[in-house]
Amino acid sequence: MAQTDTVSWSAGLKTILRISRMALDTPGKVAIAILATILASALQLWIPVLLGQAIDQMQSVMAMADAEASRGVLLQTATLVLGVSVLRGIFTTLQNYFSEAVGHHTGYALRQAYYDKIQHLSFGFHDRVHSGDLITLGMLDLEGVRMFFATGLVRLVLLVILIGFGGAMLVQTDPFLAVLALSFVPFVGWKSSVSQLRLRRTWLELQDRMSVLSRVMEENLAGIKVVRAFSAGPHEMVKFRDASVKALDLAHERVDLRVGSTTAMTLSYLVAMALVLLVGGLKVQAGEITLGTLAAFLTFMTILQMPVRQLGMLVNSFARTSTCGARIFALLDLKPVVADAKNAPELEISEGVLRFEGVSFAYPSAPEHKVLDDLSFEAKRGEIIGIVGPQGSGKTTIAQLIPRFYDVGEGRITIDGQDLRSVRLRSLRRSVAVVQQDVFMFTTSLENNIAYGDPWASPRRIEKASDSAQISGYIDTLPEGYRTVVGERAASLSGGQRQRLSIARSLMLKPDVLVFDDSTAAIDARTEESILTALKDEAAERITILIAHRLNTLRHADRILVLDHGRIAEEGSHAELMALKGRYAALHAMQTLSHEGAA
């Protein structure tokens, strides 16, 4: 998912308003944060006034040569300044605490919505979007949005009070000196905004480069055995180093931007302060203003220095939030291609008849290439239907269309006359289980992996499913049995063991339709025979579809479909197809010769 650097003003405003509304989901915390900000800002503006008055009072008392009175005034003023400072610190703490609380609540809500959306988006979306990009979006972009209340809305209130009211107080006291004191504000505001926008642009680019870096690392870790087997470590290091250097170069550029802008802003501030000291000192000499007034001006400048610099941060916060928020909401607003129809009923299975009726299908990534072309066949409860064909003939596509991972382009698929697109997805996928060749295991116990579809299943059911999948014997040899924890990516298990666990996991659901997508390819012939025998014994309870490359796997099938370019080229039992002496017989002869040659 490429980064978006520009967002229209209207779209950006809608995004800002949408995030602001999310913050208002915790109105109590928002109210406390805003009120604490107002009070802390007001108290901060009061401090220069108090200091100025204290200095003027001290001068008056010193002129009277009354030491006792001087100490009393000093103590009184110091106590007042200390009290105001303590109160300001308390309200600032409340502001920071509740601002962060609101931000974290918003972040929590967004994370939940983001994760939920990913669970429901169609397979076609995940086919084209890299998981590393989704992780980056769900971490960096979401973090940018989470911080908006504290760095955007609250900071806006703070700056309006400090700069607006503070500037008005200075102008009211001495307009000319106020102009000098505030002369650094336009430059610092402009410089800070420009630099922050440039930092934002480079931050988005850095995010892209970090996404590339995470993809390189993710692919390396997923394929570490291949890397080690081919001694490709140096090549992988070059790839990783190139991606790292690009990210490092951009990080250096960001440091240069930040240091350069900070230096320029500090210089302008010091020049303005020097002018105020010079002109203000002359005015004090001439008796136009008091020394306390000059001190108040200088204190105001010290207070305003940081808020003025934060103007750029404020601009950056709004810009970053509009961009990151637009990307997150673009995903959250996606409508799954495969979704429940309005008021869709539950799938109800009585007779148990699965039909493909003139089904044509092309994947979204290649819409011009039909994988299935006007395909029609029927499978009934109690039947085992075998499907075989060359690579790209559409075997796996059939397996993915039955549970409605994708929707058909033309025609329809029905179970007992119910179009799969018209029933609830959850009920369909409870009734259809697909055992895939590529098996994923979670980093948890074998028991939890097998019972993933029914976490509250009894141990007896788990053991029975394991028996049917011919994996219980292996599990019994383990010291912790079913409580043995599967390592990351199930690296400690062989391919055949992973496939048998996957079969057990699907059998746990007691599905009405069970589809094997070449899911016994890594299992030895004897174990496969035992599994197929067990499935044959239970076949009366369900529709069973066996997709395989090895024809020996299909000997138990009642009927075999031979696919070619998405169409049925031949159909019949093993004996009928052998007698036909067509594609199936030729493939059988080829595999037989291959096995004999290997022997």
Biggest sheet descriptor: 6 strands, mixed
Q: How many helical stretches? A: 20
CATH architecture of the largest domain: Up-down Bundle
Number of structural units classed as domains: 2
* Amino- and carboxy-terminal Cα gap: 50 Å
CATH-derived topology of the largest domain: ABC transporter transmembrane region fold
Strand order of the largest sheet: 6-7-8-3-9-10
Mean pLDDT: 83
In the CATH hierarchy, what is the class of the largest domain?
A: Mainly Alpha
* Oligomeric form: single chain
- What is the count of β-strands? 10
Subcellular location: Cell membrane
Keywords: ATP-binding, Cell membrane, Membrane, Nucleotide-binding, Transmembrane, Transmembrane helix, Transport
Pfam family, one: ABC_tran
Main location: membrane
Key terms for this structure?
64% helix; 10 strands; 10% strand; 6-stranded mixed sheet; 4-stranded antiparallel sheet; 599 residues; ABC transporter transmembrane region fold; Rossmann fold; 20 helices; alpha/beta; single chain
